[in-house]
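Memo subject: From amino acid sequence to discrete backbone structure tokens
Keywords: amino acid chain, backbone geometry, structure tokens, three-dimensional fold.
Body of memo: The sequence and its backbone structure tokens, given next.
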Amino acid sequence: MEPLVDRRIFERMESDFTGWYSLKDEDKIRGEFLGIDFSADGLKLNSAKSLPEGRALDLNLVSSQAKGAIPETGQVVWQREVAPGRWQAGLHFYQPRLLGLWPMVDHRRYSLEVE
């Protein structure tokens, strides 16, 4: 088995967030998720449902750090079943709204200053 190569350009930020998703340009909510981490170009999440790999999703991210749901659009680039009925997936943002994601960053955790 080949070792995993980390090809990330942006640092992953751990954060407590949840959300829901629908297929791009559909109003029907398809499912909910629990976020694991995010970066400037995507996120990793847990879901009770398999996500449509390769499809574009409209996402709404919810964090106690943000005043309201943060809308994003991303493509499901990978997924795997981690336990029966539990899926983990990676999504790539099409055009991330970085200012919208900013409230989810724990500035103390990622500060360059030493306390």
